[in-house]
Write a structure and sequence with these properties.
Blueprint lengths: L4 E2 L9 H7 L9 H17 L6 E5 L2 H12 L5 E5 L3 H12 L3 E5 L9 H10 L5 E5 L1 E2 L4 E2 L2 H8 L5 E5 L11 H4 L3 E5 L10 E6 L1 H7 L11 H8 L10 H17 L1 H21 L3 E2 L8 E5 L6 H12 L1 E2 L1 E2 L8 E5 L6 H17 L8 H10 L1 H6 L4
Parallel strand pairs: 1-13, 3-4, 3-5, 5-8, 8-9
Antiparallel strand pairs: 2-10, 6-7, 9-10, 11-12, 12-15, 14-15
Helix pairs in contact: 1-10, 2-10, 3-4, 5-6, 11-13, 11-14, 12-13, 13-14
């Protein structure tokens, strides 16, 4: 059976070492051997998240860490500034409203990035706002926000900066401590090269000052419990043991290559993908594209939903379509985690075939050649298939 080629922005492919780790006999999580592994993994996550602050691990999707950030930092009636611009940015807004937080939205058109000055203006207009919620990479549109500039602005206020780096971590720069980001959340199924099921959150001292004062109801996501347990290299509730074991293996690969090199690798594949799109006469949807995912506008006269279906049916290449109002209007081509240059070339070849089948006029092979040129001779020699 032909193996699927995942070019979706999560879940992403799993390295062989990770797959092997997931198949090991399960061990008990309240043991010294597991605690030693967990400690090593959390120290690795500090490196991956570029922070000296402790990293707390939740058994949940990334949204669990997002909810933990809202529930632990704020109280009902507090004001929070939320940068919009995509389905996942809007999730911050929904979470805040669910906990009775007064949302100050900063509207951003899909495909655009927030102007950092808009954050400064919102903070000036709402000086009592306790937090600014934003995203690093907005997966639904393929953009990457200027978090460094936003952090520099937020540090001058009383508000803490909370960043969703679920898709952006290890693809786009996210220098947590260096830039002064107060809280970063991420998930396991993207740049970390794991299955879904783990979420992580780092919280600096500035943000911890809010945690003890917050009055939002919380139990499973109560970070005070996680802080207490982490002192013993443990979690307050049952760990997803096989996934944590696999995390340990994934982090060995990440740290061996290096965080900057992981980011550079994604950037190289992003350039190749965009070179192919340009060669085929396609238009990028995002004004400031992420290294992790390229969002492309479906050309006129082409059925966007059929495009992604044909790519999978004919070539077993799976890319992501648009979400919500963008369904059928864009497709999203990922290049993060364990996605390889060979996967990218196979994806471009599948895209060319699907476009041709739907009547789009393009020179077959032109996109692949452009991607090969961007990747360099080594990737070109590998060809467009595995």
């Amino acid at each position: 059976m032909t193996q699927d080629i995942l070019l979706t922005p999560g879940p992403t492919p799993l390295p062989p070492q990770v797959r092997e780790a997931l198949g090991r006999p399960i061990i008990h999580h309240r043991t010294s051997s597991y605690r030693a592994l967990f400690k090593r993994a959390m120290q690795g996550m500090q490196t991956a998240m570029q922070t000296s602050q402790p990293v707390y691990c939740l058994t949940s999707s990334g949204t669990g860490a997002m909810e933990a950030a809202v529930a632990n930092l704020l109280s009902p009636g507090d004001a929070a500034i939320v940068v919009l611009g995509g389905k996942f940015a809007e999730r911050w807004q929904s979470l805040c409203k669910a906990y009775g937080i007064t949302v100050v939205p900063i509207p951003v058109a899909y495909g655009d990035v927030v102007d950092p000055q808009a954050v400064a203006d919102a903070l000036a207009a709402h000086p009592k706002a306790k937090a600014v919620f934003t995203t690093l990479c907005e997966t639904s549109t393929g953009i990457v926000n200027d978090i460094q500039a936003i952090a520099a602005i937020t540090r001058k206020s009383q508000a803490v900066l909370v960043v969703d780096a679920i898709s952006g971590l290890l693809a786009d720069e996210c220098r947590t401590d260096e830039w002064g980001i107060d809280v970063v959340v991420t998930g396991s199924q993207k740049g970390l090269m794991l299955p879904p099921g783990l979420a992580f959150i780092s919280v600096n001292a500035r943000a911890w000052a809010l945690v003890d004062r917050a009055t939002c109801p919380r139990f499973y996501t109560d970070l005070r419990l996680y802080k207490k347990s982490l002192a013993d290299d443990d979690t307050p509730f049952t760990s997803a043991v096989p996934t944590v074991v696999a995390l340990d293996e994934a982090l060995k690969l990440i740290l061996q290559l290096g965080v900057p090199q992981m980011i550079q690798r994604c950037a190289l594949m992003a350039r190749a993908t965009r070179a192919a799109a340009s060669a085929l006469g396609l238009t990028l949807f995002s004004t400031r594209p992420s290294n992790g995912v390229t969002a492309v506008t479906v050309p006129g006269g082409v059925d966007g939903k059929q495009l992604t279906k044909i790519m999978y049916d004919r070539s077993r290449v799976m890319v992501a379509g648009g979400q919500g109002d963008m369904a059928g209007k864009i497709f999203r081509f990922a290049h993060m985690g364990f996605i390889s240059p060979e996967d990218v070339l196979a994806g471009v070849a599948a895209l060319e075939g699907a476009l041709a089948e739907l009547g789009y006029k393009c020179e077959r092979g032109k996109g692949v050649k452009a991607a090969q040129a961007a990747l360099g001779r080594q990737a070109a020699a590998a060809g467009a298939t595995r």
